[in-house]
Amino acid sequence: MPQQDRSAPQSPQQQPHVPQQEHPYRPSAFPGYDHGRAVPLPAEPETPGEDDESRLGPDRLALLVLAGFGLVCLLALWAVGGAAGLSVGVVVLVAFAAWAARWIAGAGVMDSGFRRRSRLVGTREPTLRYWDAALSDAARTPEGYALHLYPLLLRLYEVRLAERHGVSLRMQPVRAAAIVGPQLWPWLDPSRPRTPTAIRAARNAGLEHIPDPRPLPPALLELLVERLETL
């Protein structure tokens, strides 16, 4: 009998330990939001062969064409100006090659379709105070998510999709939506009007079924952060 009394309280101690192993608590890497619990999301199937074709990066054929064009230009300068013309051509070609190498190296952190001057990963990162203000504003006001938090989340998702999957969120929205998931993509789709000005302009243009902005639910914010970490 004493042995049975000792073994009885062991079962309730073992039962709550099982779900903790399945869904362990992981501290969030999202600045200003560190008390979210892991939410399992279904893994997106990967289609073989698509990643290799749509990887961000330079085109080998284009590089070969540029190299051949540069060689032809050097030969033409040598034929016309001799050694002096050839030296000038070499200097110009080296300068252009250095500029092109820097341009190509930025494909990992820039949207290669637009090549905007603002990099996805810049030197002026938002502070923790700004993150905290953006999070609270998105949860309290209807326009807070579109005006403050959405640009920050969109930039992080663009970087993660480009680095992990080789997908441009703006140039390949179909593939980006398949990776992010149908539940969260409407909150990240850059083609949807979000700000009051954009919504008013879209409605004046005749577009229908445009929802009004609303505060971001905390549970949905937790899903957005968790999906960003698991991409």
Automatic annotation (TrEMBL):
Residues 1-55 are annotated as: Disordered. The keyword Transmembrane helix applies. The chain crosses the membrane at residues 61-80, 86-110. Residues 1-22 have a biased composition (Low complexity). It comes from the Bacteria. Keywords: Membrane, Transmembrane, Transmembrane helix. This is Uncharacterized protein.
